[in-house]
Amino acid sequence: MIDVEKCKMTRWPSPVLLEKSKPIDKIDDSIRALAEKMKDIMVEFKGVGLAGPQAGVGLRIFVASEDGTKENAKVYINPEIVLSGSIVTNEEGCLSLPNIYGNIHRSSKCSIKALDLEGKEISENAEGLRARIFQHECDHLDGTLIADKFSTVAKIGARRKLKQLRENYEQHKDA
């Protein structure tokens, strides 16, 4: 059972962000409540996607909404992604790494298979921003953050902000 009240925006270097998430075996009311909480967090922090680890839960679930609204947010459980298309580079940020941005290489297209909140299999083909969101959120489920994909120059540029995030985490991790 998930205590949804304890779910909150999780920042690097929290361990849950660095680990591979576990598949969801049973879609029940606690998973549905988690999905609603994740949508709320995504909207509150002005994101277009949020993965389970970003809400402090190491489960393979994410929500996505290209326009950042709760009404248009869809839920993807135990997603499997297949990349296609050419490689494109765009600047990305991440709610778990606030104020840190870098150019990330991603496939221009992808397809995804997942379960919805009723346990039905869904599949989608995506391109552009939607494809980028799917890849970004699936990376989170595998413990990969955008900073892991930064060039050496971008990593050097982000060093000070990452140090500050680590210090903030150490000060507040037991709170």
Radius of gyration using CA atoms only: 16 Å
Compute the number of strand runs.
5
Percent of residues in beta strands?
25-35%
Enumerate the strands of the largest sheet in spatial order, edge to edge or round the barrel.
1-2-3-4-5
Estimate nothing, just give the exact number of structural domains.
1
Describe this structure in words.
The protein has 175 residues and is α+β, with helices and mostly antiparallel strands. It has one domain: Peptide deformylase (Peptide Deformylase, Alpha-Beta Complex). 31% of the residues lie in helices and 31% in strands. It has helices at residues 29-44, 128-141, 146-149, 152-172; strands spanning 49-51, 61-64, 74-94, 97-115, 121-127. Strands 1-2-3-4-5 form a 5-stranded antiparallel sheet, with helices on both faces. β4 and β5 (121-127) form a beta hairpin. It is globular, with a radius of gyration of 16 Å. The chain starts with 28 loop residues before the first helix and ends with a helix.
Describe the structure concisely for a colleague.
Helix content is 31%, strand content 31%. It is α+β, with helices and mostly antiparallel strands and 175 residues long.
Q: What labels would you give this structure?
A:
175 residues; alpha+beta; Peptide Deformylase; five-stranded antiparallel β-sheet; 31% strand; globular
Q: Topology, please?
A:
Elements (H helix, E strand, L loop, with lengths): L28 H16 L4 E3 L9 E4 L9 E21 L2 E19 L5 E7 H14 L4 H4 L2 H21 L3
Antiparallel strand pairs: 1-2, 2-3, 3-4, 4-5
